[in-house]
Design brief:
There is one protein chain. The chain has 155 residues and is of the alpha/beta class. The chain has a single domain, classed as Purple Acid Phosphatase, chain A, domain 2. The protein contains three helices and eleven strands, in the order βαβαβαββββββββ. Strands 4-3-2-1-10-11 form a six-stranded mixed β-sheet. A five-stranded mixed β-sheet has the order 5-6-7-9-8, with no helix packed on it. β1 (2-6), α1 and β2 form a beta-alpha-beta unit. The radius of gyration is 14 Å and the shape is globular.
Length: 155
């Protein structure tokens, strides 16, 4: 399964559009957003995905009620724990808020820096910041759950 990973979009509509276009062209089957959408109007662009998405709130998501309503409940307080096949996945905004857990994959954001590391059996992935406001670099990632591999994309 291919899963699109995105975080820290911070209302950058042009970058969100590019991310959606990339995910659709790569035929991802699910998108996980690790928080900091900011405003509910960004959901209009995520709704153009050809697959489902799930997201967690970040520290800059002040309009939580609006984001929840606009997304139809697809955005929630984190962490979200998912079971996909034999894999246990955690989705969280700030990795430091994740209590210990036995996960195969942890997807996170907040630092605005792309990151990929393995500790024990757990693969940790930060797709970087899609918005590009802080670093000037806009990145997303695609996780292949069959190969347990991650590819980063500049958008």
């Amino acid at each position: 399964m291919k899963i699109g990973l995105i975080s820290d979009t911070h209302d950058n509509l042009e970058k969100i559009k590019k991310a959606v276009k990339l995910f659709n062209s790569k035929k991802v089957e699910l998108v996980l957003h690790a928080g900091d959408f900011v405003a509910p109007f960004t959901i209009n662009y995520l709704d153009r995905l050809n697959c489902q998405y799930l997201g967690v709130f970040g520290n800059n998501d002040g309009e939580k009620q609006g984001l929840t309503k606009k997304s139809g409940g697809k955005i929630k307080e984190g962490p979200i724990e998912l079971a996909l096949g034999n894999l246990k996945i955690a989705l969280v905004h700030d990795i430091n808020t994740l209590a210990s857990g036995d996960f195969d994959i942890v997807v996170f954001g907040h630092s605005h820096k792309k990151e990929l590391k393995k500790e024990g059996k757990t693969l940790f992935v930060n797709p970087g910041e899609c918005g590009g406001w802080l670093t000037g670099k806009s990145t997303v990632a695609i996780l292949d759950t069959d190969k347990l591999s991650v590819k980063f994309f500049n958008i």
